[in-house]
Design brief:
Helices cover 57% and strands 7% of the residues. The protein is built from 27 helices and 10 strands.
Length: 689
């Protein structure tokens, strides 16, 4: 792991708690001006549902929640997408779309809160807390929320927005029993609408054939979609040709059986990929192989597009269309070695793409230990951290599934690479429990001392943040032993250097854990060991970070003079390394120490340090510092914030500090912190004064 900073996160009970920041970036830099505009792409062949859309829209305008219900394949998602598209102006604060068939409810709530601008650190770890926070977030917003794949009333209730001005639409096979919902049932398309669907999907089809096809196959949207794919792919022109192509099979089987062998292999591969969507660039791993075209899209993939078995859902992104349950080809069919190799290549491609996203988010300064996987085609790089984080947001569930698949096959290098790259996502979304689950899986199949030590360090950090201290101690102890023993046994110079780095990292993290546990003597020994390691390697940034940790320990022990001297050394090392974040953090630590000692001019130093940490992107630390200063000023003589306090003084600097904290919290989506400060100010009539 790289030497990323632990920065002080202040709790307002007199304690200072260390939270590992992992060199995380701030994804939400200020309030969102434009709300999210989400939803599946509306396709031209989705015709005949205009009356349904209008009726649902009218009900939503009345403030009633709506459930679109119906059998599988009847077009529920298509109608929901059309409603989203039709009502964007009606709900100017944004439109969100969630698909619970492919995302677990708690993860979906977490992702929604991030997209609504809530700071990741404010999002509770459990489902109930996230649902409650969504209520607070949506209280005054004119949002339209669409939740697809709802299975029961309770699940629908977890996502329902609080605002009466918001719209709420669920998609379910079963009606909602809650009488507050209006259940809107979808049936087949009318003959005229079904004919229009076929005309849009197959523009070259003979007009005289269309009514006969509708009479034969009906108006079920899923059947029409499969029929259109069959006609396009097989270049069919009349009803007799369609019947002959099917030969008694279902529509889906008729489409699948008409594919070339290479296209069938590709379909089975893409259908087995984790996640619901994949990038066009992924198809580059197939080009140049036997039976595959050179340049552009592979010919078998173009077959899938023509047959309607693959669908472009947004520019450059595709989804495999599955048949009705039970109609898909049996997975027990023999799979040729080329396809098995392609499955490995597809996971490796995603792992490499995740490594590129990690670099875009976290920068190149962070030390990385997992190998670069050998693949024939390199995926494209990202244009910046925002693009990379959006990619992680779209695919993080699929990437975690990929990690588990790689672990199941004991592809240890791929598992390691995915785990290391996912740190960039987990660190910036504060999903510590999810991260710990991934790192446990990767550590279980780790091969070699570097992998064991590295994955132990990452798992240990996550366990500390989830307060699983006993497990963290066990994991970190083992990792430190493995890394230390490897220094005398491994022959490869690169592995020896990696183990040397990791000894320092593991000692640092374990030292911080021991400090949290109040085992100060052990903490001092481990942190001194980690500092000596950084000095031996000549890494000023690591030296500065570890000096900060030692200064915090000295402060806990009451050795204030030594703590001050150590913080000054930390500032010098961070300055030498050009590490603005840790230089600003250490300067603030030192200024707060002087302020607590009532030294003259200390408050001005605190303000200068707060400005510095704000510029460095540590807005949470800046806001918390303003809040701490407010209470300290109140204790030093300014009136306290209690009802019935008496006369209000002309100048109340502590209130001004709270207002500064409130502004920072609100600007960066720290909703819970903002509510706490606002309540304090409200109690004394300070808001608006």
């Amino acid at each position: 792991m790289p030497e990323a900073p632990f920065s002080g996160r202040n709790e307002f009970n007199g304690d200072v708690r260390d939270v590992y920041q992992a060199a995380s970036i701030e994804v939400h830099n200020g309030p969102r001006v434009v709300g999210p505009r989400e939803g599946p792409l509306v396709r031209p062949e989705w015709t005949g549902r205009e009356p349904d859309v209008e009726k649902i829209a009218d009900t939503l305008r009345e403030g009633r929640p709506v459930a679109i219900v119906g059998d599988e394949g009847c077009g529920k998602t298509a109608v929901a997408a059309m409603v989203l598209d039709a009502l964007r102006e009606r709900f100017p604060d944004g439109q969100l779309y969630v698909d619970l068939e492919h995302e677990e409810a708690s993860q979906a709530l977490h992702s929604m809160l991030l997209r609504l601008g809530i700071d990741a650190a404010q999002i509770p770890p459990n489902l109930e807390g996230r649902a409650s926070l969504l209520q607070s977030v949506t209280r005054d917003r004119r949002l339209l929320l669409v939740v697809d794949g709802v299975t029961r009333d309770r699940e629908a209730a977890q996502f329902r927005p609080a605002s009466k001005a918001a719209g709420y639409l669920v998609v379910s096979r079963n009606p909602m029993r809650d009488q507050d919902y209006v259940n809107h049932r979808l049936g087949p398309l009318s003959p005229q609408s079904a004919a229009d669907h076929l005309r849009q999907a197959c523009p070259n089809l003979d007009e005289a054939v269309v009514p006969r096809l509708v009479e034969e196959f009906g108006g079920h949207p899923a059947d029409l979609r499969a029929l259109a794919g069959l006609i396009r792919h097989r270049s069919l022109s009349d009803l007799f040709d369609v019947r002959e192509a099917l030969a008694g099979s279902s529509l889906f089987e008729g489409v699948y059986d008409g594919l070339t062998e290479a296209a069938r292999w590709l379909y089975r591969l893409l259908a087995s990929l984790p996640g619901t969507e994949f990038e066009r660039a992924l198809t580059g791993i197939f080009t140049g192989s036997r039976d595959w075209s050179l340049g552009g899209l592979p010919a078998p993939f173009e077959e899938l597009l023509d047959a309607g078995l693959a669908l472009e859902v947004r520019p450059g992104w595709y989804r495999v269309e599955h048949g009705i349950a039970g109609e898909a080809p049996a997975r027990g069919e023999a799979v040729p070695i080329d396809l098995f190799s392609a499955a490995y290549d597809s996971l490796a491609w995603h792992a490499r793409r995740a490594q590129l996203a990690d670099i875009a988010v976290m920068g190149r300064d962070r030390l990385r230990y997992a190998p670069r996987l050998p693949i024939r085609v390199d995926p494209p790089a990202f244009g910046g951290s925002a693009e990379a984080m959006e990619w992680f947001r779209s695919l993080h569930t699929a990437l975690q599934d990929s990690l588990r698949i790689a672990a199941r096959h004991r592809w240890s290098d791929m598992t390691w690479a995915l785990a290391e790259a996912l740190w960039a996502y987990f660190a910036n979304t504060a999903q510590d429990r999810e991260a710990a689950a991934c790192f446990r899986t990767a550590l279980a199949v780790a091969d070699g001392p570097v992998a064991v030590a590295h994955l132990s360090s990452m798992l240990g950090m996550c366990l500390i943040k989830t307060e699983a201290f006993a497990e963290a101690g066990t994991v970190l102890d083992r990792g430190l032993v493995v890394a230390t023993e490897a220094l005398s046994t491994v022959d490869d110079p690169a592995d020896r250097l990696s183990c040397t780095y990791l000894v320092g990292t593991l000692a640092e993290v374990l030292g911080r854990l021991r400090r949290r546990e109040g085992r100060f003597a052990e903490a001092r020994e481990l942190l001194s060991m980690s500092l000596a390691n950084a000095e031996e390697l000549g890494r000023p940034r690591a030296i500065g970070i570890r000096l900060r940790a030692i200064a915090e320990l000295l402060h806990d022990e009451g050795a204030f003079a030594e703590a001050e001297r150590t913080w000054r050394l930390a500032i010098d090392s961070a300055k030498e390394a050009g590490d603005e974040r840790n230089m600003a953090g250490a300067a603030l630590d030192l200024a707060m120490l002087r302020f607590a000692s009532h030294e003259r001019g200390a408050l001005a130093e605190v303000d200068a340090a707060v400005a510095q940490v704000t510029r460095a992107g540590l807005w949470q630390l800046a806001a918390e510092t303003h809040e701490r200063i407010a209470w300290a000023l109140a204790e030093r003589g300014a009136p306290r914030f209690n009802v019935g306090i008496g006369e209000v003084e002309p100048e109340r600097p502590h209130e001004e500090r709270l207002r500064r904290a409130l502004e920072l919290y609100e600007a960066h989506g720290a909703l819970l912190d903002a509510e706490r400060v606002r309540r304090t100010l409200d109690l004394n009539g300070a808001v608006g004064r």
